[in-house]
Amino acid sequence: MSPPAASLRSIRICAVEISSRNGWKRRPGLESVNALNKTRISEKAASFSESVIREMTRLANRHNAINLAQGFPNFPAPDFLKEAACRAIRNDINQYAITWGSPRLRRAISDKYLRQYDYEADPDREITVCCGATECMIAAILALVDPGGRVAVFEPFYENYGPDAAIAGAAPQYFQLDPERDWAVDFEAIERSIQREPLRALILNSPQNPTGKAFNQSEMERLAELAVRYDFYVITDEIYEHILYSGRHALIAQLPGMRERTVTISGLSKTFSVTGWRLGYLVAPEDLTSAVRKIHDFLTVGAAAPLQEAAAEALESSGDYFEKLAEEYRRRRDFFVPALRKAGFRAWNPQGAYYVMTDISGLTELSDVAFVRRMVEEIGVAAVPGSSFFQKGDSGRKFVRFAFCKTMDVLEEAAERLSRLRGR
Ligand code: PLP
User: Fold this and answer.
1) What is the pLDDT of residues 339-384, one digit of tens each?
2) Global pTM?
3) Does ligand 1 lie within 6 Å of residue 267's CB atom?
């Protein structure tokens, strides 16, 4: 256990006194030891708090509540994937893979982009495998953005982006999506802001967590025009690319002038229901890839070798898996969103991903945090308070997000419990 601050201070003072009494010189470096003792943790670590989403999972566990907070499925991963992982371990694929991903997996990712989007990515020079989309994002920001560089983030946002920017020393710039216009983008606000101070990068998460918004073609084109005109990078988070309820997912990297300035991120977590495997990947032009690979190497060395082998096998033989996946999530959405509305929530129908953003003002005067706590304790359903998706917590006060990546029986039980909220 670390000693309390007061005793640290006295140890420090004591050391200086003894040394001067004996006529010793102050040892170089003592000042930095003193400074370390004074602050204990870095400014960066102090600048953000623990993940609210993961904290909600702990609260749900404590109360034995249905966990609709954190976005992990309660159903098994596909058998073909699990079998492939077991086979890889039995075949002794147990040592470090090549840092930027096993050749077979990078080839399978490249083939997927070609098949799915008609997008050519060189597996040797343009694809990197990381420990989840999470590591891809932080590695990309560290590789492309200098301290102080401005990074645009749409708000409400997936809660990692703020800490990602803080760790990189970047300056996040938040741009509100308008809930009254189906989470529309205010392009004029972005342009005005860039004209005041340049942007280094923009993070584009589509389909989006927490709103379920899928940016449409015209929005992507306008963002691409801005990126080209004002010369900034776009770092995408497309982890939900295969959970889209209508139309086809599109890559902003394919729009004119975008290939050389886009980092496209995705991964296995959500598509194959293996959030614990920690497998993500990133596609970027060669010069950006080289920079990201260096950061990735020293952050984590590489992702789990046998799981990469299994991932390659899964991508190679995915057949109609992606279509079926979207279809099953559509069924869950079409059951759960009306159930939330019936229970008194205003709920936005997600166009993709597996979250529903709701407005609780019709149900309660409590804040999001108090309301979610009450839901866990009184009816046994956990969700995420909206304030964790906003920079200023107050802006999220009336919102609560539910994750519906659960089996139908769990969603039915949750709907039944939620129906008891009204009139409490
Ligand atoms: N990006 C978004 C938008 C997410 O919602 C999540 C998980 O909830 C992640 C990334 C995490 O992805 P991974 O498990 O690949 O790190």
Assistant:
1) 999 999 999 999 999 999 999 999 999 999 999 999 999 999 999 9
2) 0.89
3) yes
